[in-house]
Amino acid sequence: MKGRLTYVTRSVTTLIVWLIFIAHFGQSHAQMGASLTVEQVEEALVKTRNLKPMIDLSIRFEFDSATLLDQSKPNLRVIADAFNGKKLGAYSFQVEGHTDKQGMAQYNQRLSERRADAVVTFLVNVGVQRERLTAVGKGFHELADETNPTAAENRRVRIRTQP
Questions:
Q1: Which domains occur in the chain, in start order?
Q2: 40-49 tens-digit pLDDT
Q3: How far apart are the first and last CA of the chain?
Q4: How much is the pTM?
Q5: Chain segment 45-94, per-residue pLDDT in tens
């Protein structure tokens, strides 16, 4: 029972943070081509600090790939600027890689780890200190679109502040 309660609490918290992000910045920022500002990243991560804030930025990948798509790089540069700014400069971040549900669990776990590593590497290359970033693979265990387990939306990276 305790495990189910923890899962429900975590799911409700994630939903609340996601709804706050959409309410502040509009649903269009959840889509792949949307451009972010430093202020939007800071606000989403600082304002919701007590809820274990995260940004599900839809940094997406092609099927079976850990190579960043070119359209994701401008948003990652903005994220790096925000991470190095005054409001977020003292925070550390967890970069979570995710996959869709096609294929074997073990393979998808490794792929999700490579996706998280790709984002961490990019952020480090544009100036974020490596020791502030932790890459974590989630495999296909936290789908963005549970109604369509093979949807492209599930192949993503999510960024959270670390405690």
A1: 2-161 (3.30.1330.60)
A2: 777 766 655 5
A3: 25
A4: 0.71
A5: 665 555 556 676 667 788 898 999 888 899 899 999 999 998 888 889 99
